[in-house]
Amino acid sequence: MATVVHSKKSCAVNPLKMSQPIGSALAYMGINNCMPLFHGSQGCTSFGLVLFVRHFKEAIPLQTTAMSEVATVLGGLDNVEQAILTIAAKQKPSIIGISSTGVTETKGDDVDGYIKLIREKHPELDHIALVYVSTPDFKDAFQDGWAKTVTKMIEQLVKPVPVDAVRNLKKVNILPGAHLTPGDLDELRDILDAFGLEAAFMPDLSGSLDGHVPQDFTPTTIGGITLEEIASLGFSGHTIAIGEQMRDAAVALEKLTHVPFTLFDRLTGLGVSDQLIALCAKLSGNAVPNKIRRQRSQLVDAMLDGHFYFGGKKIAIGAEPDLLWALGNWFTELGAEIFAAVTTTASPLLERMATEEVLIGDLEDLEAKAATCDLLVTHSHGRQAAERLKIPFYRIGIPMFDRLGAAHQTIVGYRGTRDLVFEIANMFIADAHEAHTDTWYPAMRQQEQVGVAAEAH
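Structure for Nitrogenase iron-molybdenum cofactor biosynthesis protein NifN, as requested:
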C-alpha cells in the first residue's frame, strides 16, 4: 500500500500534467468528421494544437471561440454561436465537440444553455451533433478530460436499448483510456480479429491519428468511429473498458443499453493479457488460436531472458495514474523496484501501488526523487532531468516530440509486453559498465596500492 501525497509547492516548476481540455480534445479526435472546439482564448487552443502537432506529426483539427477580455466578462454566447456557425459552414463536420477552459469556467458560462438557444435560433444545425463537456484546466488532468468526454458522448449519442434487444454477440465495444496509443488499439483489434470478434472502439484514435496518408484532405478528423456506429453500441454483446478512468463511461453505457462490461485496469503484462485472452475465448466460443499461443510463449521467453537485467533496478516513473499503474505493476513483476512515483491527479489505484509513496506533483519532484535510480520513465519533458541525472530515459505518454513513432508505441497484449521487455532490457544493457581487469577485485587492488605506497615511504 502506498501513501498518496500532494505536492505543497505554490507552482509547477517543470510540469508533468497535461490539462483536462487537451485530454477532452484528443477524445473528440477519435470521432469521424469531428471538429473539437475550445471555449476560451486563442492562446489556450494554440498551446494544445502545438502539443498535438509535435506529438503526432500530423495536421490536427482544433478550433477556438477566441474569447477576448471583454467577451469573457460579458459572456461568451456570441462567440460560441459564431464559432459553431463558421465551423458548420466551412468545415461541414458531423459533430462539434466543445470543451471549456479555465477562463470561461471562472466566468461561469452556461454553455449547455447557449447550445439550447443556438439550436432554437438555427434549425439548419439540426444535422450536426453538439457535445459540450466542462473541463476547467485549473483542476484535474489529461485523463480526467478524456474520461469525462467519452462519458458525455456516450450519454448523448448512444441510442438506448432495452434489455431484451437482439444483439450481435460477436461485436465487442472497447472503451480505451487516454494512455493507450493508436498502436495499442491496432494490437487489440488484431487480438479480437483472431477470435472472430468485431471491435468497436469508442473513441478510435487508430483510425484518425495512426499516421496514415489520406487520399483527400479534410479539415475535420480523418477516420475514427462514426456517429452511426456510436449510436449502435448498445447492440453489441459485451464492453471492454481499459483503465480505471473508463469505469464511469462503461457504467453509463451499461445503464443506457444493458450491455455488460469488463474493466481491465491494465493490459501490460502476462497475467492481465491471459485474462483478456480468456475473455475473448469466452465471448467468441472459439479456442485460443495458435498464433496467440505462440505470442504468449514468446513473451514468457522474453521475460526469462530479460529478468536478469530488471532484478533490483530502481525505477522512477512520472505519468498519468492509469499509465503509472500499468508500468509500475509491470516493472515490479519483472523484479524491479518503483523507487519514485509521481502522477498528475487522484485515482483509486494510487494507494495500491507497490511503492512507499505516490506524489501528485511535477517533474521537478520526480527529478529530486530519481537521483539514485537506474531508469527514468516519463514523457519528453523529462529529458533534461535524465541528462542531469545521467541515467537512461524511456519516453512514454504525451507529449513525445523528440522521437518519431509515438503513435505506434505499443505496450498491450503479449506482443506489446514482449517488445517492451526487450526495449527496456536493452537500455539497461547499453548502460551497463563492461567489466575489465581494472574493475576486478577493486578492494584488493586498492589495498595493494596502499601497501606499495607505504613501502615507498
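The chain has three domains: 16-156, 168-288, 311-411.
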